[in-house]
Amino acid sequence: MHADTPLFRSEPLEVSPGASLAIVGNAPKACAAAAIDAAAIDAADCVVRFNNAAGFRAATGSRVTHLALVNRGGQMREWLEDRHFLERPAVRAAGAFILPFPMLPAEHNRPETICWTREVLALLRPSGRPVHILPEALHERARRLLAPRTPGRPNPSTGFLVTLALLLARGQGAAPVQAYGFGFDGWPGHPWAAERAWFADQQAAGRLNLHPLSK
Question: How many domains does the chain have?
Answer without folding.
Answer: 1
